[in-house]
Structure formats: C-alpha cells, structure tokens
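Service request form, structural biology core

Requester: graduate student, group of Dr. S.
Request type: structure prediction, single chain
Budget code: on file
Notes: please return the result as structure tokens.

Sequence provided:
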Amino acid sequence: MDIADFYALQTGPAPLGSGAPAKLTVHDLGNLRVPSGNVGACDPFVSLEYPLVVQVPPGDFPVRVTVADVSEEQDGSHLREAYLSLVLSEADSVTVEAVPGPDGPPPPGHYFTVGVDAGTVAFVDAKAVKRCMPDATTWYEGVFDSDEADSWFSRMDADGPHPAGTANIVMPLASNGENIVLSHSGWGDGFYWLLQTKDAEGNLTGIHVDLAVVGKFDEEPNDDKEAPTDAVSTVEKSKKSWLANLLRR
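Core staff response, request fulfilled:
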C-alpha cells in the first residue's frame, strides 16, 4: 500500500472507496496498557482469547479512532469509523505496510486481517487477557451484555467519556489497570487489514486496523477466509489465526 492512499490519523478531506468525498476527524480514546509488548487486535466479542499479535516495545500508548463523515451533504449526519490506531510515536509516518506474523511478513501484496463478526474491533495486551478476564463461559452475560451500566455494550453505547461506539475499559480482574480499547468497525463485519507505519528511520510509529472506508482498494479486504474456531491452545489459536487470515489484496 502506498502511504498516499493511507489516511489514518489525518483530518480533512479523503476519498471514499467509491471516489466520493469524505471528511476525517480524529478522536483520542485514551491510552492502552501493553506491559508485555504483545498487542492483540481482534473483534473482542468473538476472538478476544486469540487475537492477532504484534510485537511492540512494552509501555502505555495512545489509541485514536479516525472517523469519516460519509454523508452526501458532508454535514456530520453519517459517520463511520475508518481506522483504529495504536500510536507508538508522534513522528511523521513515511511508509505503511502489512504487519508481520510469527514467521515474518506475508508475501508482497498480501495482508493479515482482523476477522470481525460483531461489528467491533479492539486493541488489548494479548498476554493480559488470560489473567484479567473471568472464565470465558461468563463473558457474554457477565461482562459484555449484563444490562448494567458498566457492561461493555453499555459503555460503547454511552455518549461519553469517549465518542459513542467506542470505549476504553479496564478488564474485570485487572490488578494494574490492564485495559482494552474498542471501536465499532466502520461498515460492520468482515476482514480488515492490520497495518503498521514507520518513520524515515524505519522505526514503528503505529499499528492500524484499516476498516476499508476511505482510500483505494483493488479488492475489498473483507471477502475471504473465516477465522479459526477449533478448540486448541491460545498460542496455537493465535498462530493459526494469522495463517487463516492471510489475504490477497
């Protein structure tokens, strides 16, 4: 992908895939704690236990969502999330490329993708999930949709402190603020490229889920393989999800 066709963290005009105009705004979703250096990208309501994993320096990093106004009138009446970004550096990004998997980068022209089946994407410390979440059998009614104000669905539906459709949530059993940052996924379900940007010295500046709202696409990035669902270990699931989601652009 050419950096000229990449609009994450930008404000102002950008083209939709159809060529129609859109206007971008960027919203701060707070910091993500990544003490292990293993950033997980996933649909949190489907694959929180086995996200795609990207290695970054351990630390706390800002997460921002780039939102596109896709209304014909450009009046803010129809907004869609275009990118979810973990910001590793404020330096200017000069290149954008596929993130590498456990065995290195994918072949040229290919990308690893985040599978979405609940209209949501998220970043989380992949190694924190096991120790900071209760038994997975209780997640849906006890954590995601408990009908309480602190449920994840309720937090995403709220108008604050972050824009509706997003949330920054400390996981239930966290002992040191381990959290997850969530956002609705643009047009909804599908498979979305996981990208990284670098500065002029080749240092990572960000990890991004491209939600296929703005920019140019030779093909839609959400028209192929399903994420794995077989019951294997977390490590095996993580590696298998990388391989299952290898997608030709």
